[in-house]
Amino acid sequence: MVGVKVEEALSETDHCLQFSCPERSVSTAVYVLLYVCAAAVVLLTVCGNLLIIISVCHFKQLHTPTNMLVLSLAVSDFLVGLFVMPFHFMWLIESCWMFGHVFCVLFNFVSFQLTSVSVGNIALIALDRYVALSHPFLYSKDVTSTVIHAVILLTWLFSLLYNFAMFYVGGNFTDLVLCPGECLYYLGETNSLVDLLFVVIVPCTLMVVLYVQVFVIARRHANAIRELNHNVKSISKMSSDSMRSERKAAKVLGVLVIVFLVCLVPYYVCSLMSDAVSADSSYLVVNNILILFYLNSSINPVIYALFYSWFQRCMKMILTCKILHTDCSFVNVLGINS
User: Fold this and answer.
1) DSSP 8-state code for residue 320
2) Which pLDDT does position 190 carry in this prediction?
3) Comparing C-alpha atoms, which of 73, 53, 114 is closest to residue 253?
4) Are 183 and 91 within 8 A, CB to CB?
5) CA dist 164 to 108, 154, 172, 192, 298, Å?
6) Number of neighbours of residue 69 by Cβ within 10 angstroms
7) What is the pLDDT at residue 9?
8) What residue stretches are annotated with the G-protein coupled receptors family 1 profile domain (predicted)?
């Protein structure tokens, strides 16, 4: 869950008397540059994830269980870029929330929902790769499109119910009187620990453990294939392709998990250390650290573009409008060596 969380609410009357939206303290050039940079990040996030969504939905060859999880992650990242990033960047640049209390409640709930879904999706991708490598026959038989669609739906629904419980049952946001220009969310100590457990500790531990297992299995397969190559020449090309595919899967999953942890951990570290500083200072620090967390939604499409040749081919066909041609959805975008 993402939001500005502190242990105890300030005295609202005293705080609101001393709070006001500050005057702009930077030059016009810097002010414009900040908005240009924010717009560039938003466009990268929206357009990059939209390319992934179009690619997986349009090309039949990409309708695999793993790519359905990638699609779910891209949808959540796309919505973060569309509905969360623009308002958060405006909030930071202006140093003031300008959209009112009702939209503040909606903004916080949407950001909580989308970012927690992203956590679930990345954990599921790690689990998918582990099962595919450790139990390939079971994976090909039992992990069907119907099963993976049901898992994705349950992930979104569980996240919705979890955030509703934390937001309306566990939190006190709806009863909080906010000062004009503020958009804070107060969460008690118990709910903070529950959130830390379910959104950080459990999924991140799962990701790390599964990635280590995937790496070990991929190395084991590669060594076994290398030994077979010395004895059976006829399977040389097939084994080489298999080895390359497994190594790529381990590499991409590792990069995805590492980047995600780098973007996630600083936010929660700052949240846990908020007691050591004043409430106003922790609010500003955590709100700025959230930029790094949201940037994970911008980085994911870049990872796919760098490591997956099928995504590069799809981008080229989409940007050149070749997908408008008849039967383009049946084009081989994976290539011989993918």
Assistant:
1) T
2) 73
3) 73
4) yes
5) 11, 15, 12, 15, 26
6) 25
7) 41
8) 48-304
CA–CA distance, 68 with 324 (Å, rounded to integer): 22
The sign one gets for the Cα dihedral 268, 269, 273, 274 is: negative
* pLDDT at position 210 over 70: yes
Backbone angles phi, psi at 95, to 5 degrees: 55, 35
C-alpha distances in Å from residue 249, one per residue of 88, 128, 202, 253, 338: 34, 11, 23, 6, 11
pTM for the model stands at: 0.84
pLDDT confidence tier of residue 30, bands split at 50, 70 and 90:
confident
In angstroms, the CA 248 to CA 242 distance is 10
3-class secondary-structure state, position 115: helix
Kindly state the tokens that stand for 5: 């969380």
Residue 234, φ and ψ in degrees, nearest 5: -70, -20
What is the pLDDT averaged over residues 282-308? 81
**How many Å apart are CA 272 and CA 193, to the nearest integer?**
10
Cβ 317 vs Cβ 323: under 8 Å: yes
If we measure between CA atoms, which residue out of 228, 248, 223, 253 comes closest to residue 238?
A: 228
Confidence label for 154 from pLDDT (cuts 50, 70 and 90): very high
User: What is the token pair recorded at 229?
Assistant: 């190559």
Length of the chain: 338
Q: Provide φ and ψ at 55, rounded to 5°.
A: -60, -50
Percent of the chain with pLDDT strictly greater than 90: 21
Token pair listed for 228: 């077979």
- The answer to whether the CB of 181 falls within 8 A of the CB of 20 is yes
Alpha helices in 135-233 (DSSP H): 136-142, 145-164, 189-196, 202-231
Which class in CATH covers the domain with range 25-330?
mainly alpha
The DSSP 8-state label assigned to residue 234 in this structure reads G
Which has the closest alpha carbon to 315: 327, 304, 300, 325? 304
User: Which DSSP symbol is given to 19?
Assistant: -
